[in-house]
Amino acid sequence: MTDLPNLIGGRLQPPQAGAYLDVYEPATGAVFARCPDSDRADVDAAIIAARRAFPDWAATSAEERAKVLNRLADLVERDLEELAQLESRDSGKPIKLARTLDIPRAVVNLRFFAAAITQWASDAHATDARTLNYTLRQPLGVVACISPWNLPLYLFTWKIAPALAAGNTVVAKPSEVTPCTAARLGALAIEAGFPAGVLNIVQGTGPRAGQALVEHPHVKAVSFTGSTRTGMAIATAVAPKFKKLSLEMGGKNPAIVFADADLSDANLDTIVRSGFANQGETCLCGSRLLIERSIYDDFKECYLERVRALRVGDPDNAASDLGALVSKAHYDKVLGCIERARNEGGQVLCGGGPVHVKDRCAGGWFVAPTVIEGLPCECATNQEEIFGPVVTLIPFDDEDEALAIANGTDYGLATSLWTTNLDRAHRFAAQLEFGIVWINCWLQRDLRTPFGGVKNSSVGREGGVEALRFFTEPKNICIRFR
Ligand code: NAD
Fold it and tell me: Does the structure show a pLDDT above 90 at 40?
């Protein structure tokens, strides 16, 4: 049994009170590690270390900061296989996903912001012949980065990389449900040569370590990804303290298929993937599939055939398309949502319950990819985020109806639109109330683009210069000369 450490002041260390949380392997249901159940004392120690490290780190050149981030990226890449296995074991996701998406993307995140900071420029405005304004973009100080369990190292690095690149020092808290790869990253950060206190990683629960972190008076900004409910709690806690706040939260994303869509095999595969990748535990997954009525029956047949072909099994098996859900609590929640959908009058077309995987995975938390039809748009199943392998099919008659259904929830993160009509694609995209619109694709990411949503899905944007702006304070300097 491994006891994971915190990283505080450049040292891997146990929690001060010696308290730990069990870490489960979702594929087996067994405990395989312990995560520090850090409290206010650990958070205070991390913030003291980060404050001490700030002046020197803020004064380093962008090139120097980029060099250390690139060294960390190289080490993550060196240990890619080990990290992928750890991520898969900790989260239940298929090993092939951890190998091809999660860990490679962590490497890319670190390299992307290392490069971005060396290319970033600030504004200058020549007001008249003798007056010049220029804007400094200065780091904020100590910032908090809080990440969820669904894409553990991927989202952890997505936050810490821009924060560090911009010259801040960081106290980061990964999810207590999937703490392992962040703990490993702590060791790699030491090896990469980060000065002590620049990056601190405090493990523990939201209500204890997380709350102490966001409320701390010396934390200047909070970058959070997780549920809308937690985002609300954090916003409530930090608003009276006027901290900078970036929130990336839940979604109830629609995928919209028009009768003129190109439904090639590759596109159908992408539509299936957009619902079920990572067991549907991706904030960008489309959980409402809107289909133009004239093709509804034919489309449904092709779609179900593909969904039924998805293999649910041991995440360690390279052939598994879906692994286990992340925790017993989440497994129970998702099964409860399927039951609720039945009670709301939904017809389960495939899946609809647990999958019993044999041998080492007999105690694991596996759920079959589930497709449901016949539900009204206003019901809880079509309004609330389930965050599991559950997709509802919803027919529509025309563009107006599709738009009303797509926009008809409290969320507005991402949507995908399938049509070959260029006019419609542009017209429709402009009216969709979402931060991200994919047309004839899904999860096609360019890290320079603004990432985030509207309504209850986000406050602010991440990615590219948006992230660098968030993690810096602009200071305008106006000089008048003779
Ligand atoms: P969660 O809100 O339960 O937890 C997220 C993080 O917040 C964890 O590290 C947790 O310990 C911490 N936390 C909880 N309470 C806290 C508090 N009071 N103060 C400070 N920190 C606290 O979310 P989750 O269950 O880990 O993740 C799933 C959710 O994340 C889904 O809703 C999903 O849509 C969302 N998500 C959003 C995006 C996005 O980019 N919009 C990406 C991934 C996941």
Answer: yes
Q: Where are the alpha helices (DSSP H) in 193-295?
A: 211-215, 228-238, 265-276
Residues serving a catalytic function are 248, 283
Are the beta carbons of 421 and 443 closer than 8 angstroms?
Answer: no
Q: Is the pLDDT of residue 1 over 90?
A: no
Picking from 260, 430, 311, 323, the residue whose alpha carbon sits closest to that of residue 92 is 323
Number of domains forming the structure of the chain? 2
144 C-alpha vs ligand 1 centroid, how far in Å?
14
CA of 326 to the centre of ligand 1 (A): 13
What is the model's pLDDT at position 434?
A: 98
User: What's the CA-to-centroid distance between 123 and ligand 1, angstroms?
Assistant: 35
| Same domain, yes or no: 240 and 297 | no
- The model's pLDDT over 325-355, given as tens digits with 9 standing for 90+, comes to 999 999 999 999 999 999 999 999 999 999 9
Distance 71 CA to ligand 1 centre (A): 29
Instruction: Give mean pLDDT, residues 161-165.
Output: 99
State whether 440 and 466 are in the same domain. no
Q: Residue 461 class from Cβ within 10 Å (0-12 exposed, 13-18 middle, 19+ buried)?
A: buried
- Closest ligand 1 atom to 330 CA: 25
- Phi and psi angles of residue 210, each rounded to the nearest 5 degrees, phi first: -65, -50
Choice from 105, 147, 175, 180 to test ligand 1 binding pocket (greatest atom count within 8 A of CB): 175
Ligand 1 atom closest to Cα of 453?
41
Q: What is the CATH number of the domain that holds 421?
A: 3.40.309.10
Q: Which two tokens stand for residue 467?
A: 């992230």
**What pTM did the predictor assign?**
0.98
Task: Read off the pLDDT band of 369 (50, 70, 90).
Answer: very high
Q: Render pLDDT for 375-409 as a digit per residue (tens, 0 to 9).
A: 999 999 999 999 999 999 999 999 999 999 999 99
Q: Is the CB of 152 under 6 A from ligand 1?
A: no
Instruction: Give the residue whose CA is nearest to atom 22 of ligand 1.
Output: 206
Q: Where are the alpha helices (DSSP H) in 277-398?
A: 296-308, 328-343, 380-383
User: Quick one: average pLDDT of 8-18?
Assistant: 98
